[in-house]
Amino acid sequence: MTIKGKHVLQAVLALCLSLLFFVSFSNVTTNDQTAYAADNSLQKVKEKGTLVVATSPDYPPYEFQTTKNGNSKIVGMDMSVAKKVAKGLGVKLVVKSMSFDSLLVAIETGKADVAIGGINPTAKRRQSVDFTHIYYSGGQSFLVNKAEKLKYSSRAKLKNQKVGAQTGTLQYDLAKQRIPGVTVKGMDKNTDLVLALKTHKVAAVGMETPTAKAYVENDSSLAMIPSGYKLNKNDVGAAIAAPKGSTALINAMNKSVDQIKKQNLTDGYLKTAGTYMKTNTNNTSMFHYWKYFAKGVEYTMIISAISVVFGVLLGTLLALMRFSHNKLVHAIAVAYIEFVRGTPLMVQVMFVYFGIGIIVNLPALLSGIIAVSLNSGAYVAEIIRGGIDSVAKGQTEASQSLGLNRTDTMRYVVMPQALKNIWPALGNEFISLIKESSIVSIIGVTDLIYQLNIVRADTYRGVMPVFIAMILYFIMTFILTRILNHYEGKMNHAK
């Protein structure tokens, strides 16, 4: 190994150890906060006057979105439960949207006070968070294609078949444990699972009975069969999750939950949810949901535009650091670039939002912009470095012979020529950024992919919303390509 290689390796290892120390420190901080929350969890909620609830609004009739008086709002049985609980606490309800597999992480990292979303209080989950009493038990079912209802009339008939279930749910674990020879296909969204079912990628999809029933009532090509599971009553049903040790808050919420069960209020909540669902399916044309797509395009463009600016600035800085004669500066730049390029953008987005969020409570949109900018900066740095290296060495020597110092040589001689060389690659990075920014939907940023999934959940249409999103992405990237090509042409014709 060369000396330069050793310095790079040492820098990368140092960066990794620093991140591990940060995570360990964060965990200690979180544990301390959790222990402290055992005494003041309820007091904290009452003092700020809000109950922040995390949910994934793509699971009708539990939670989904609808348009009322031109405004989009999250509705469903769980939202009615959350309102009842917030009212019982004497505070205002604030809802945060994100993917289902991020709900428990959100309350563990302080992004939300509680989480609700048809969450089953399994023994495994109880190790990480606390739960209220169960407020509704809907049972378990399988969704199947109506034409195959006789073929898959019971759970036993699903032996050695492919069965779909939402990742991280009780349905996923049950299918894996209790269906012999099964291959479980896990996906983040029920809408994706239903599409997989209708295209025969899976034989059945495990769901809560009310959700399966909602799909059957709104899609004549689907049917449902009973699961036949015999389950522990403490694991079955939906409950509200809160941070571990939030005894005071849990006890206060249980007063409302017990009242909901005693008065059987969930029947009314489900009836109201059904009314909203009928409203959604009265007109499932994509034009009817144009505001959803327009909002998605707006956020996608905002994230991409800001991330491009900061990505270029950071990338330029990192590229210049790589050319520095200072070994430490050079090693830091190399370590950063290699680390960012070696980790998925999804992980980086979640780390910024949930990890750094432990210390600084960053909004989802800002977290997404930061993560995408930091990621883009590493790739832009390599593009710029390659462009600088492509400038003939004689150009630098000639400028030095004219008396230009290193800074002026880079500014007036090398960079103008390098920009012309790197423009096509830089343009590709800008275009990729528009598409890659879609990953921010996992933390609840209402970009185009997020809105696409909402429309799919509301309309029970699997393919058309995807097609519309593809067209919109194409339009955005095509326009940007034309603009970039225009300026590339001007550069090529410039004297």
TrEMBL record:
For the biological process aspect of GO, one term held by this record is: amino acid transport
Where do the TM regions start and end?
299-320, 351-372, 462-485
Q: What is its main location?
A: membrane
Bilayer topology reads:
Multi-pass membrane protein
User: What InterPro entries does the annotation carry?
Assistant: AA_ABC_transptr_permease_3TM (IPR010065), ArtM/GltK/GlnP/TcyL/YhdX-like (IPR043429), MetI-like (IPR000515), MetI-like_sf (IPR035906), Solute-binding_3/MltF_N (IPR001638)
Annotated coiled-coil segments of the chain: none
Any one GO MF annotation of this record? transmembrane transporter activity
A GO CC annotation given for this chain: ATP-binding cassette (ABC) transporter complex
Q: Which residues form the signal peptide?
A: 1-26
The family line of this record is: Belongs to the binding-protein-dependent transport system permease family. HisMQ subfamily.
NCBIfam families linked to this entry? HEQRo_perm_3TM
PANTHER family linked: GLUTAMINE TRANSPORT SYSTEM PERMEASE PROTEIN GLNP (PTHR30614:SF20), MEMBRANE COMPONENT OF AMINO ACID ABC TRANSPORTER (PTHR30614)
Q: What is this protein called?
A: ABC transporter permease
